[in-house]
Amino acid sequence: MTWLDCCIDVSHWSNCGEEIDWVAVDPAILLVFAKATQGGNYVDPSFAKNKDGALASGRMFVPYHFMDGSDRDDQIDNFWPHLDKGKPFALDWE
Predict the structure, then answer these.
(1) Are the C-beta atoms of residues 12 and 44 closer than 8 Å to each other?
(2) Which stretches of the chain are DSSP H helices?
(3) What is the pTM of this model?
(4) Are 38 and 62 in contact (CB under 8 A)?
(5) What does DSSP say about strands 42-43 and 31-38: parallel, antiparallel, or unpaired?
């Protein structure tokens, strides 16, 4: 098993848009990457629930921003409010 086998990526697309049943998530999943924002103005509508659910279930949590071609400063301003000081975050840049 690798560390990739112990993490999941969630967003509003996860679970067909329904709230995730965190009790039913495999206990081997230790780390949750959750989409927080995209571009300069989009906030994932399930971000807050995913964050609360993952943390309440005892999992490590990392928010990420999905980069697009919009203005860099607007993207930073969009993502910044969703970060917890001193905690990890990630960028998805495809």
Answers:
(1) yes
(2) 47-56, 72-79
(3) 0.90
(4) no
(5) antiparallel
Tally Cβ neighbours within 10 Å of residue 84. 10
* pLDDT tens, residue by residue, 50-93: 999 999 999 999 999 999 999 999 999 999 999 999 999 999 99
Question: SS3 for 35?
Answer: strand
Tokens 């924002």 belong to 37
Residue pair 11/40 in contact (Cβ under 8 Å)? The answer is no
| Region class of 39: left (phi > 0), else alpha (psi between -120 and 50), else beta | left
The answer to whether residues 35 and 64 touch, using CB atoms and an 8 Å cutoff, is: yes
For 16, phi then psi, to 5°, come to 55, 35
Instruction: Give the ranges where 21-69 is alpha helix by DSSP (H).
Output: 47-56
- Which residues 6+ apart lie within 8 Å of 48 measured at CB? none
